[in-house]
Amino acid sequence: MSDDDTVTVAHGAGTGKTRAFLEDSVVSRFAQNGAGDDLAVGLDALDDGAVHEIDDRSVVVTTDSHVVSPLSFPGGDIGRLAVAGTVNDLAVMGATEPLSLTCSLIVEAGTSVELLEDILDSMEATCEAAGCAITTGDTKVMGSGEVDGVVINTTGVGVIPQGAHVPDAGLSPGDKLVLSGAVGDHGITLLAEREGFDIDGELRSDVAPVNDAVAAALDAGTITAMKDPTRGGLATALNEMATKGAAGIVVDEPAVPVHDAVSAAGELLGIDPFDVANEGEVVFGVDAADADAVVDALQATSVGADAAVIGEVTDEHTGRVVLDTGFGRRYLSEPEGEQLPRIC
């Protein structure tokens, strides 16, 4: 059968096939189904969450399901990933103080109780770091072979002043692009750990809650757009922001922070660090006058030491991302298919 007849791993990559599937099969059914007048950001926006306006407040809601192999890896595990991923999706919508998280555990029969408790300990520690709590949830146990180890779904809720949410579609020509830290750490670390590669240098996932860093950026300057570059990496996040904002982006490649170990491993493995998932980074559109202040604010946080201005928004190349390598320019396209399955 063709790809049009069956779901493939590429449909879960967060890139073009994912968006096409969502638009054709999901958004067309549910975008307006039961949505009231209070819906400021809905399903059709394909943003990191929904925003409901209630009285003088906006309620931000997001949900995510987490699958990763291996379940534990340098820098974290599926528990830390589940909490941080949902907290971060709230944060890039402007909700930096999560009100509540839910947690649904789907566990394969035969899973070690010790392993599961380690995962739950990790979730507890990450909640404490993010200043949030899990307040309700559900548990299902599947038969051996019916699910791969542990799957975790988390939903997050945050409350912000009405109109305070930040979309991923808000870029304007003249804005600067600020990245909160180095790219590629999570994806390259997972691949190396999964395949047992012995690579010189320390590889460590960046998975972490970024809500404090986002709050610092919002306090430091005018943020026009935000997105966390998870599935599909920085390349996909930037292309989505350019398309949604009907603007062009020029990225200064030498300015994009990439750790030496990640760069070396990526070259060895044939994987571009721009194309793989990050789990503790944010890309911001920032008013040009505030860019340096935002970078300074990010660098003062626990996750923002490598923060940098990496490019700017233009009125040329609408909907495209141009990568300036220092020697020439080319379009930076989002990756096709699923390079690294079961990664977040």
TrEMBL record:
GO biological process: protein maturation
SUPFAM superfamilies in UniProt: PurM C-terminal domain-like, PurM N-terminal domain-like
Pfam families in UniProt: AIRS, AIRS_C
Identification of the protein by name: Hydrogenase expression/formation protein HypE
Superkingdom to which the source organism belongs: Archaea
Domain PurM-like C-terminal: 173-323
Gene3D superfamilies: PurM-like C-terminal domain, PurM-like, N-terminal domain
Family: Belongs to the HypE family.
Domain PurM-like N-terminal: from-to ranges: 47-160
InterPro entries: HypE, PurM-like_C_dom, PurM-like_C_sf, PurM-like_N, PurM-like_N_sf
